[in-house]
Design goal:
With 622 residues, the chain is α+β, with helices and mostly antiparallel strands. It contains 15 helices and 22 strands. Helix 1 crosses helix 7, helix 12 packs across helix 13 and helix 13 packs antiparallel against helix 15.
Length: 622
């Protein structure tokens, strides 16, 4: 913990130092940029106000023919020229307006004291005389006679014959510079320029350390320089003290500290929030897992009372999560025979056992249970084995049916032998009687009965052997008449069979015995759906080309969606507690499919059931 705090402190100090340095550099750069922008703006302002504002007047003066002719010929001053100069002076408010010949001598001036003065060494004259663009302006600041000087070349036949120039006082420029104490106007020698010596601000005491650093007034300053485009060699400079802004440093350190503390706090809170989200997600996943387990889970106290249970356990005991009044002894059919007491007594850490679980509403469920001791509590897990027991019962029932099939095959074989002997004896009796003997009718009936019994025995043998379907043309009309006869015998007295039998023959390919058995099964099922009595209707109609539809319909109990979805499932039956094997409709569907037909069942509770069987015809006529 101490190492972590020390590391955090060192990181904080380093971060504060680096952040302070970066912020100072950024602040200094911002100040420099602002100062440079201010200096550039001030330079543009004074150039426009003081150096460039009379360019139009001088250009006009240089374009006058009288002045051009005078300078080109070198003639004496004339009154007209002097008058023109005075007009320009009075118009623009200049101190002196004058003309200079090509040699640099002032030949005409509004102030006579200027006549004959040599200005050839002045930089503004030299720049104006060398001007390559027409009426280019050259401006200069002169210390000997302090003021602003400007000149434009006078051209004749493409050559410069002289310049037109003026002088004006620099006092307004001095006042503009004095109003900006941080900005100085320096000449090419690095001295401060001012037409009024009283306004010079101690620039003569500066000690330069390179072009961008100067010691002024006892402080080192960084120099920001901006050259004047209008005056060659002159530039504006701005001084920025190189001092540490301790107030700014303290404020920046305080801001850094607050940022670090805030960052650590935010990081800590984000970590806590992440941990809480992870814990909530883990808890949600556990709850979701327990809620969707098919196995019932319950937590019990030391006395076996229920503390918590998942939804599967609540369904078994038929209670809700808020009800905890039940205990371990309330859930078993025979509590004394269940070995869970040894776990509560501390003799065993866990136990697994089978038992019959009892719900609060009297339901009984076979279960596989496990009880485990865990930190002063007990964990009970219960697995519902109802489906497993049901499957075991269906498997045993299937095995019984298999044995029954084998047994019926043996019985049918022996019965067939017995019937063969009886049919032989009946034939002998028939042969010994005269044709007009009244006993002939009884013997014929005996032979018909024995033949039907032999056919029944043959069906039993076919069922036991699982012989393939023998598809031959059969008359469906005759089959329905026989089905009507058998239905009246098989249905209870309260149920009436209503048949619509076609008038003519109707030929289909199939096994007569299997089809008769399948249709009879449908009729019997319809009758069992009418416990209070009613009518079972059987009718036929042509549907598609070369197909016929047989409909068996009742208005009985009907089936819900879950039962209807499993109606053809083998061993599924709603009559397991009473009678039935659950194989009837499964075998009916198999028989119809073997005859290349289809079967559909539609039903709803209280509305009855409708079974539609479609079979292919052997001929196209109905």
């Amino acid at each position: 913990m101490k190492k972590a705090l020390a590391s955090g402190l060192v990181a904080f100090v380093l971060l504060g130092m680096v952040s302070t340095w970066l912020l100072l550099q950024f602040d200094r750069q911002m100040q420099t940029n602002r100062q440079r922008q201010n200096l550039e703006s001030f330079a543009a302002e004074i150039e426009t106000k003081f150096f460039l504002r009379h360019q139009a007047e001088l250009s006009w003066l240089a374009s006058q023919e009288a002045i051009q002719r005078f300078l080109a010929s070198g003639g004496c001053p004339s009154t007209a020229l002097t008058s023109i100069l005075e007009q320009v002076r009075g118009l623009v408010g200049l101190d002196v307006v004058y003309l200079v010949d090509a040699k640099g001598k002032i030949t005409v001036s509004s102030d006579p004291t200027y006549l004959g003065t040599d200005v050839s060494f002045r930089e503004y004259f030299q720049e104006a005389k060398a001007g390559r663009t027409r009426y280019s302006l050259a401006v200069g600041l002169v210390r000997k006679t302090p003021g602003l000087y400007a000149a434009v070349p006078v051209f004749v036949d493409g050559r410069v014959v002289g310049v037109a120039s003026f002088r004006t006082s620099a006092s307004q420029l001095d006042l503009a510079l004095a109003a900006n104490p941080g900005i100085f106007l320096l000449d090419p020698n690095g001295r401060e320029f001012s037409s009024d010596p009283n306004l010079v601000r101690n620039s003569s005491t500066w000690i330069w350390d390179g072009p961008s650093r100067v010691l002024a007034s006892g402080h080192w300053n960084r120099v920001i320089r901006h050259p004047l485009g209008a005056v060659s060699g002159f530039s504006l400079v701005s001084l920025e003290p190189e001092n540490w802004p301790w107030v700014t440093v303290c404020i920046l350190n305080l801001i850094c500290a607050l940022l670090v503390v805030t960052g650590v706090s935010v990081w800590h809170q984000s970590q806590l929030a992440r941990e809480r989200r992870a814990e909530q997600r883990s808890r949600h996943e556990r709850e979701l897992l327990l809620a969707n387990l098919l196995e019932g889970i319950a937590v019990l106290d030391t006395e076996g009372k229920l503390l918590w249970a998942n939804p599967a356990f609540q369904r078994l005991v038929q209670t809700d999560s808020a009800e905890t009044s039940q205990s371990m002894k309330d859930w078993w059919e025979t509590p004394g025979e269940v070995p869970w007491a040894e776990v509560f007594e501390g003799k065993r850490p866990w136990v697994v056992f089978e038992g019959v679980f009892r719900g609060r509403q009297g339901s009984w469920t076979p279960v596989l249970a496990g009880l485990t001791a865990a930190e002063g509590q007990f964990l009970l897990s219960v697995l519902d084995r109802s489906e497993s027991h049901r499957s075991d019962q269906l498997l045993r029932q299937s095995q019984k049916l298999t044995v029954l099939g084998q047994l019926s095959g043996g019985i049918a074989h022996d019965l067939n032998n017995i019937l063969g002997v009886l049919m032989g004896m009946a034939d002998l009796i028939k042969m010994t009687l005269a044709e007009e003997d009244p006993l002939q009718e009884s013997v014929d009936l005996m032979l018909q009965t024995l033949t039907r019994a032999a056919t029944l025995a043959e069906r039993m043998l076919d069922f036991a052997r699982q012989t393939p379907v023998n598809r031959v043309p059969i008359d469906l009309t005759a089959l329905l008449r026989e089905l009507l006869f058998l239905s009246r015998t098989a249905l209870p007295p309260s149920v009436v069979a209503s048949f619509e039998i076609p008038e003519g023959p109707l030929s289909v390919l199939g096994d007569e015995n299997l089809l008769l058995s399948a249709l009879l099964n449908l009729v019997i099922n319809a009758g069992e759906a009418l416990p209070e009595g009613g009518s079972v209707s059987v009718r036929t109609r042509p549907v598609e080309p070369n197909r016929v539809e047989l409909i068996v319909e009742d208005k009985g109990l009907g089936m819900d969606e879950s039962t209807l979805a499993r109606v053809f499932e083998p061993f599924f039956s709603t009559k397991l507690d009473k009678k039935g094997t659950g194989l009837g409709l499964s075998l009916v569907r198999r028989t119809i499919l073997e005859h290349e037909g289809t079967i559909e069942v539609a039903s709803s509770p209280g509305q009855g059931t409708r079974v539609a069987v479609k079979l292919p015809l052997a001929a196209s006529k109905f």
